[in-house]
Amino acid sequence: MTQNLKKKTDLATREQHLDAYQPLSGMVVPRFAGISTFMRLPHLAPAQAPGEIDIAITRALSPERSKNRQSRVLLRDPLVAVLPQSRKLKSKKIRLADLANERFILFHRKGAPVVFDTIVGACRSHGFSPRVENEPNSMQTILSLVEAEEGVAIVPASTSSLRSNGVQFVRLVPNNLYLDLIAMWPLGEPSAVLRTFLDFLSANADAIRTKAELALSSIARIKS
Fold it and tell me: Residue 48 pLDDT > 90, yes or no?
């Protein structure tokens, strides 16, 4: 009984992480018979369930976490600022340097060091070190804290697909900050089914990127 409960809990957890990447999941990962794909948040390891997952769709990982795996970039997800809806802005763009005096809420570094370091590094390159007040392990919690005016955040644009009525997503200037979304699978000769899936990704790479960018622009209402 305990084992069945654990299986149900694991399944529910995976489905929750899959939801976090909507609408990207429907664009990037088709239903492929015979292959186990896993859309995941940054703090989960692709090899968390050895032998069960053929390929993971994830953010870029550190060299240590990427060891013994190969990967391919699917699309580049722009970073955007998240501010409370109550904040009055003159435009839908904001300079990163203009956030220097703000309190920051960032996804916790232990779970996603590449994400955290990319954001902190971008801030430092614009003349300031962010004052990190909170490091939640959930993007939804980040949005809730921003809505409560506990600080501002910098997140991938795809985060705008989560419930976020009390916040606004604002394009950063300069518009050259991205986090890659990648496909990652174990080193070695892929199975015939996995090879077919990888061929599908290659053949549809441009369509995947175009469709994802259009959908994210529409959901986040971010204009160049």
Answer: no
